[in-house]
Amino acid sequence: MATKMDAYWMPFTANRQFKQSPRLLAKSSGMHYWTPEGREILDGVAGLWCVNAGHARPKIVQAIAEQAAEMDFAPPFQMAHPKAFELAEKLVEITPAGLSKVFYTNSGSESVETALKMAIAYHRVRGDGARTRLIGRERGYHGVNFGGISVGGIVSNRKMFGTLLAGVDHIRHTHDLARNAFSVGQPEHGAELADDLERLVTLHDASTIAAVIVEPVAGSTGVLLPPKGYLERLRAICDKHGILLIFDEVITGFGRTGQPFAAQTFGVTPDLMCVAKGITNGCVPMGAVFASAKIHDAFMNGPEHLIEFFHGYTYSAHPLACAAALATLETYADEGLLTRAAQLQGYFADALHSLKGLPNVIDIRNIGLVGGVELAPLPGEPAKRAFNVFLDCWDQGVLVRTTGDIVALSPPLIVEKPQIDRLVGTLAAAIKRCA
After folding, report:
1. Using CA atoms, how far apart are residues 300 and 294, in angstroms rounded to an integer?
2. Which of 107, 116, 243, 410 would suit a FRET pair with 129, their CA atoms being 20 to 30 Å apart?
């Protein structure tokens, strides 16, 4: 029976094009999806940067089913359930040292909103209430709520929605094709771009700035890596001026860069860290903010019967999400998945950079098991060349992701070398056909 498609307004989708030629997924397991017709699709993007352990993992499936039968929901305000505490303890075992407090959300967008509110409120409870300004970065992606698109820097996500939040500014992005094209791993040039924060300090004064938020690796804008020394320099400038540093690790968290978190890969620890996606392997919506004890403890004042932080969600620490996350962490640990990208990144990098020299390939970027291939746009038709490549790969049974004229790859961490070969080989053939 044909699926009716009129009622569903799809997110981040060319709805009219899709409904003329639908791309439907009906089943998943391991590294693959299957269409309703039974056609096998190799998953080259871990669903949407989130299915890090591969699809339909038995421990996670079982944990969700058992939890649904035992207790489907527990109110998170002035109440709790044991798995929320158990999960928090297990999470802080793998976070960078110093990030010892966990606040639960339901998505990356909510994690960002939570971290921004924490940052502003932190300064206020310390008597530094003039620090309300938030600094994002050009080409940054921090979800789709008003706080996230305000500090974010992707034009298409911002232009339709009015003036957004007041008191937000942006530092420059780090993408530098002229100096860093075809870098393997972190680019050599651009650490000085962190000094752009000093420009904003001079403009606004540090006493008005609450926090700076960046993705360690900017994912949704096309896999932009931090130049060597950049994050270290940004951390130092924030410390110098009493500004909080927030990392958005919604994409990079849970093994994508070769360590549990990109903060550990790059050796820079933020004051707040936003996560989601891989926390439950994408099985149940969930996110979290990891905070330092310094930030948490600043709120723990006043009468003990009063709420310290007026923020939260109906589904914070949802029992099914906590059960899924605990089983996900167990699966990661059983198979060494949080560091597996470090073992495969050399092979992945060699495969990816073999695309250099193909028609219209103007840059290739990689770290861990995430890569970006930037294509020259078709004259007068931005994003169409990459979209054509995406459709070609789909026809050949491989799922990739595009953003603008950049093709992004982020396969599940269980990927094997022959699957990397097929993924990159299919992409190469598509690029040639779409030249």
Report:
1. 10
2. 107
Question: Other C-beta atoms within 10 Å of 239: how many?
Answer: 12
Q: In what helix (H) or strand (E) does residue 398 lie, and over which residues does it extend? A: strand 398-399
Specify whether the CB–CB gap between 92 and 279 falls below 8 A. no
Scanning the structure block, which residue is given the tokens 């779409």? 434
CB 49 within 8 A of CB 219: yes
Pairing of strands 209-214, 133-137: parallel
Distance CA 293, CA 379 (A): 52
CB 290 within 8 A of CB 271: no
Q: Is 103 helix (H, G, I), strand (E, B) or coil?
A: strand
For the record, the structure tokens of 254 come out as 């849970």
In terms of Cα–Cα distance, which of 377, 380, 379 is closest to 389?
377
Structure token pair of residue 112:
């960002």
Helices 384-395, 417-433: inter-axial angle, 10-degree rounding: 130
User: What does the pLDDT read at residue 44?
Assistant: 98
Could you identify the residue written with the tokens 């940052």?
A: 119
Confidence (pLDDT) at 1: 47
Place of tokens 């339709």: 160
Q: pLDDT value at position 2? A: 64
Report pLDDT for 435. Answer: 86
Q: Identify the helix (H) or strand (E) that includes residue 392.
A: helix 384-395
Low-confidence ranges of the chain (pLDDT < 70): 1-2
- Which of 430, 402, 354, 416 lies closest to 219, judged by CA? 402
**Token pair 């360690």 is at which residue?**
216
